[in-house]
Amino acid sequence: MDTPPNVQEDPESEVPTRNLTGLSGGVASSLAVGLSLYALYWVVGIVQPQIYRVSFLLIALVLTFLVFPARPKSRARVTVLDWALIGCSGIALLWPVIDFDQFVYRAATPLAIDLILGGLATLLILEATRRTVGPILPVTAVGFLLYGYYGPLLELVGLELFAHRGYDPARLIGTLYMTLEGIFGVPLNVAATFIVLFTIFGAILAHSGAGQFFITWTMAAFGRSNSGAGPGRTVTLSGFLLGTVSGSGVATTVTLGAVAWPLLRRAGFSAEVGGGILSASGIGAIMAPPTMGAAAFLIAEFLQITYLQVIVMAIVPAILYYLSIVLMIEADARRLGTKAVDVDVPSVGYLTRTSGYQFLPLVAIVVLLVSGMTPFRAVFLSTLLAIALSFLRPEQALKPRRLAAALEAGGRGVLSVAATTATAGIIVGVVTLTGLGLKIAGI
After folding, report:
1. What is d(CA 256, CA 234) in angstroms, rounded to the nearest whole number?
2. 407-441 b/e (C-beta count within 10 Å ≥ 16 → b)
3. Buried b vs exposed e over 283-294: b needs ≥16 C-beta within 10 Å?
4. Cα-atom radius of gyration of the chain, to the nearest Å?
5. How far apart are CA 55 and CA 362, in angstroms?
6. CA pair distance 325, 315, nearest whole angstrom
7. What is d(CA 18, CA 23) in angstroms, rounded to the nearest whole number?
8. How far is CA 101 from CA 50, 96, 106, 184, 223, in A?
9. Tag placement on the chain: N or C end, fewer CB within 10 Å?
């Protein structure tokens, strides 16, 4: 019998999650660690793309139904419905793996079991997306599915430009479920390769003390100022440094707020202005190289350019973004009459000498990318470097228990992205099948 779990807020997610204990907690932790190890193995091992994407999504869906409640009332424990959805996920996504040799050749003529399980997989993905990011994206995907089926009717209502021949469920499911053009297409591939590896990298750095070091180092470097804007500048630059490793605006904002809000309050910033500074500084993580947000990896994949090129392109917008925040803080500090705050931290020179090695994994990623290494191997080796460097300080060493916690955080951190990219694959698949993309370009 499971012990009723508490409820917690996952810093990687915008919605409440369960803090599981007992059997379900052990299962969730094991799956999250396993998902991270599977992603790391993929870098050095050989796994068929379709097998890897399907199995990656299977683990992510099971974790999602364990961790994210269907509604607030079911947050107390994993419900019978959740276990049923987990069982359905296993059936729907193990089938392509079990019957792989024949499955991949039946996309044009799917069997009845393919149609049933393909429809089930689609519903499960939409529900997982609803739980993690809300109803807007799933409803949008349903709209595209209806467009794919009822395309001929658009001509009857005067929308000839968007009308098409229409596709029956067999064709829709065959494309979305049985090829790499739909659910298991480019968006999910980006989540299962780029994004999960950088999420693990960020979790490793956070658990090795790098996140706290970046905040402390920034306070030491910029917090000792006689200006009332000094605390605001410190928070902004701390957000930038944290964002370089997390790539998550939500996680960066939560971490930054817990540490930096007392500093802003002591300086005299109001709650509204302080909240604005914290959220603006945190959300900039999605454009702070080298990690950045999920969109950066999608840009690289869709435009067929290297991730290093995306990093270079993001440097100027990121600088301008954080510069604009600093300039607005200068104006607000004068308007609000804020005061300087004495920051009780060691000198920046001392911190750099004793813990400056925390910057090395970030530098390593850029150096490896410039040397021509793939982003996958660059972040993989930088992750190993971060683990090795953690042993320089015994209290921060990533020993087995702590390393497992970091891997678990990395696995959990990719759940919402896995669900949303799978749903995005549904939309992309319908757009490709119906030719809507070409029609919009023509218009």
Report:
1. 11
2. bbbbbbbbbbbbbbbbbbbbbbbbbebbebeeeee
3. bbbbbbbbbbbb
4. 24
5. 30
6. 16
7. 13
8. 11, 9, 10, 17, 61
9. N
Cα 272 to chain centroid distance, Å, stands at: 27
**Angle 290-292-295 from CA coordinates, rounded to 5°:** 135
Residue percentage of the chain with pLDDT more than 90:
38
Two structure tokens written together for 320: 């301008």
CA distance 241 to 243: 5
pLDDT tens sequence across 166-210? 899 999 999 999 999 899 998 999 889 888 998 898 889 888 888
Long-range contacts at 37-46 (CB < 8 A, ≥ 24 apart): 37/407, 39/192, 39/193, 39/196, 39/197, 39/200, 40/197, 40/200, 40/380, 40/383, 42/192, 42/193, 43/197, 43/376, 43/377, 43/380, 44/380
Go through the chain and tell me how many residues it has.
Answer: 443
Residues 180 and 49: beta-carbon distance below 8 Å: yes
- 289 pLDDT above the threshold of 60: yes
* Closest C-alpha among 229, 240, 194, 203 to residue 379: 194
CA distance 231 to 429: 48
For 401, phi and psi rounded to 5 degrees?
-65, -45
What's the half-sphere exposure (Cβ side, CA atoms, 13 Å) at 150?
11
389's tokens: 């460097």
Residue by residue, DSSP assigns 117-166 as HHHHHHHHHHHHHHHHH-SHHHHHHHHHHHHHHHTTHHHHTT-GGG----
Tell me the three state secondary structure of residue 19: strand
Residue 163 CA to its chain's centroid (Å): 35
Q: How many CB atoms lie within 10 A of CB 37?
A: 15
Lowest mean pLDDT segment, chosen from 39-53, 169-183, 328-342:
328-342
Identify the bridge partners of residue 9 per DSSP, sorted by sequence position: 16
Query: Buried b / exposed e across 228-256, counting CB within 10 Å, b at 16+?
Result: bbbbbbbbbbbbbbbbbbbbbbbbbbbbb
- Collapsed DSSP state (helix, strand, coil) of residue 39: helix
**HSE of 170 in the Cβ direction (CA atoms, 13 Å)?**
7
Q: Are 192 and 436 in contact (CB under 8 A)?
A: no
Q: What is the DSSP letter of 194?
A: I
DSSP class per residue in 376-398: HHHHHHHHHHHHHHHTTSGGG--
pTM confidence score: 0.83
CB distance 86 to 127 below 8 Å: no
| Cα distance between residue 290 and residue 310, in whole Å | 9
